Amino acid sequence: MSAARKLGATSGQLPAVVAMHPITLRVNGTLTQVEVAPWTTLLDLLRESLGLTGAKKGCDHGQCGACTVLVDGKRINACLSLAVMKDGAEITTIEGLSAGEALHPLQEAFIEHDAFQCGYCTPGQICSAAGLIRERRAKSADDVRELMSGNLCRCGAYTNIVAAIQQVMAAERDPGSACGEAGEHGERGERGEGEGKA
Ligand code: FES
Ligand code: FES
């Protein structure tokens, strides 16, 4: 792939040569080298170039959370993140959360609690929940609601989503309490670069 690409000119415009930037990412555990235009978002790179269509494009403006992925373990809105800025980062998408055929505990819990309906928001919700649990800031259901508030669900599955997340938080805190009361605890860290949610 060349480092520069000639864009087709539309009538009245001169052709432009765009410098492409080579970047290396580790995506779901696989070292991936690509060339990206300066304006390519991480979301577009994942979906359109790498074929990872789990992360969804909802608003494309950082308002719905459908595009949430984990970058170096932190949840971000991929639609607000330029791919070129993530050179060298470790990216985890919904496709990379399971361990082979074994679903991630959050995926299991979402199924168990019927926490998705149409499923459009679900990849973002689950990636965001994974980040939230890792952040260890949530202590209650209200905390989970607040810390997940950047993820919108048009199908109104919020109650079941909170229950699923709390179940996994409780299991992590006390591995013996499998289906226990969705406990109180968790967290959510900072989301940098304007990529975060409310
Ligand atoms: S697509 Fe809505 S926040 Fe990214
Ligand atoms: S399940 Fe439909 S948008 Fe959330």
TrEMBL record:
Which Pfam family, an example, fits this chain? Fer2
* Chain ranges of the 2Fe-2S ferredoxin-type domain: 21-97
Q: Which InterPro entries match?
A: 2Fe-2S-bd, 2Fe-2S-bd_dom_sf, 2Fe-2S_ferredoxin-like_sf, 2Fe-2S_ferredoxin-type, 2Fe2S_fd_BS, Aldehyde_Oxdr_Iron-Sulfur, Beta-grasp_dom_sf
Listed Gene3D superfamilies: 3.10.20.30, [2Fe-2S]-binding domain
Q: Which GO terms describe its molecular function?
A: 2 iron, 2 sulfur cluster binding; metal ion binding; oxidoreductase activity, acting on the aldehyde or oxo group of donors
Residue ranges with Basic and acidic residues bias: 182-198
Q: Which terms are listed as keywords in the entry?
A: 2Fe-2S, Iron, Iron-sulfur, Metal-binding, Oxidoreductase
SUPFAM superfamilies from the entry?
2Fe-2S ferredoxin-like (SSF54292), CO dehydrogenase ISP C-domain like (SSF47741)
Write the Enzyme Commission number(s) for this entry: 1.2.99.2
Give positions of region: Disordered: 175-198
Domain of life from the UniProt record: Bacteria
Q: Name the chain's protein.
A: Carbon monoxide dehydrogenase
Q: Which organism is it from?
A: Chondromyces crocatus
